[in-house]
Recover the amino acids of this structure.
């Protein structure tokens, strides 16, 4: 079959114990037993989170990834096929390899913490992205290079090779990040050099504030601590946008969590002509959209869902202001469920909420 979007990169199994009744401080007490609620088991990582969100939004999506041949790999593949048998068509099974998983800890009143095992993702390389299978698609999205060590090695040589292949196939390209482990190899990588090498082949780049600060402004991130978003203003985001555009991205932005989404585009965005979009409206755009108000039941996958909303907006020829709203809307739907896709609604239902005057949060970015 042909696909609108091919999503590739990192995939794992998420194990999410229900501990919202516990405080973050309680988990710091050693030697104690805490009763938890039921365990939610779901596929995780951007191939699942962004891919399945796109699928629920009505986009024809292909999931191009690999799993191990162990029980966890079987669960991942079965879960994807349970959503739609076609979602397993581009997944390869690697014999003798342990599959990746994350234990997601989401105590009440705090962002989530991950215990992550890289597993089969350590073997994911440029050869896993098949050029023949890219043909006929409109967009290519890859997520979480910091958790794909073969792509980050040699200053991102494998990552650049994948995006060169996707661009050669005529696809609009997109990339998403995750905060590297500061004590691991990905945290020691030269991300300034990697992004300079890869972003000339990346059309859409929407990292979170924590991700892009780690990679380009690490001193600021370390100085500001756990809440860097509260220290950002329009001038600071504009400077970050300048840097990402200078590195080669055509559409860039910063996901700001409860503070919404910032977007910046290059002076010319002709790349969207292949999608039928009004490219003039996308030329030299800068804007910010506040987050929508929802009852937060878990933030797992919210950033991945927001990207799914944004890519869906591009496929529907939306202007940048509307793409911002769609991205924030799908991200907001995500946090209404403890897992990464349970809250995602079909596109028509999501648009109904927007047309009904969905209330936005009060957090703002100074200067907008």
């Amino acid at each position: 079959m042909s696909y609108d979007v091919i999503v590739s990169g990192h995939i794992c199994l998420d194990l999410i114990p229900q501990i919202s009744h516990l405080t973050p401080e309680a988990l710091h007490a050693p030697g104690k037993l805490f009763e938890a609620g039921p365990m939610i088991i779901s596929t995780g990582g951007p191939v699942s989170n962004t891919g399945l969100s796109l699928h629920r939004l009505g986009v024809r999506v292909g999931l191009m990834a690999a799993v191990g041949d162990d029980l966890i790999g079987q669960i991942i593949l079965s879960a994807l096929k349970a959503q739609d048998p076609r979602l397993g068509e581009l997944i390869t099974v690697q014999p003798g390899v342990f599959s990746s998983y994350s234990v997601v800890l989401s105590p009440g009143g705090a962002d989530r913490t991950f215990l992550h095992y890289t597993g089969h993702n350590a073997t994911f390389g440029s050869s896993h992205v098949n050029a023949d299978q890219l043909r006929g698609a409109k967009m290519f999205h890859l997520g979480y290079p910091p958790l794909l060590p073969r792509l980050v090695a040699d200053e991102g040589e494998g990552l650049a090779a994948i995006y060169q292949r996707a661009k050669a196939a005529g696809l609009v390209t997109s990339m998403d990040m995750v905060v590297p482990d500061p004590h691991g190899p990905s945290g020691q990588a030269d991300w300034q050099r990697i992004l300079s090498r890869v972003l000339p082949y990346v059309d859409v780049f929407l990292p979170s504030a924590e991700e892009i600060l780690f990679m380009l402004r690490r001193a600021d991130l370390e100085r500001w601590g756990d809440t860097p978003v509260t220290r950002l203003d329009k001038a600071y985001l504009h400077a970050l946008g300048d840097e990402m555009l200078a590195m080669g991205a055509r559409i860039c932005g910063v996901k700001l969590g409860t503070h919404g989404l910032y977007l910046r585009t290059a002076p010319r965005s002709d790349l969207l002509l292949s999608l039928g979009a009004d490219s003039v409206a996308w030329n030299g755009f800068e804007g910010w959209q506040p987050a929508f108000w929802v009852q937060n039941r878990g933030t797992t996958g919210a950033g991945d869902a927001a990207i799914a909303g944004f890519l869906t907006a591009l496929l529907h020829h939306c202007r940048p202001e509307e793409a911002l709203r769609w991205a924030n809307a799908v991200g907001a739907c995500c946090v209404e469920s403890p897992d990464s896709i349970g809250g995602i609604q079909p596109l028509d239902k999501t648009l109904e909420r927007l047309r009904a005057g969905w209330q936005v949060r009060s957090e703002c970015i100074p200067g907008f």
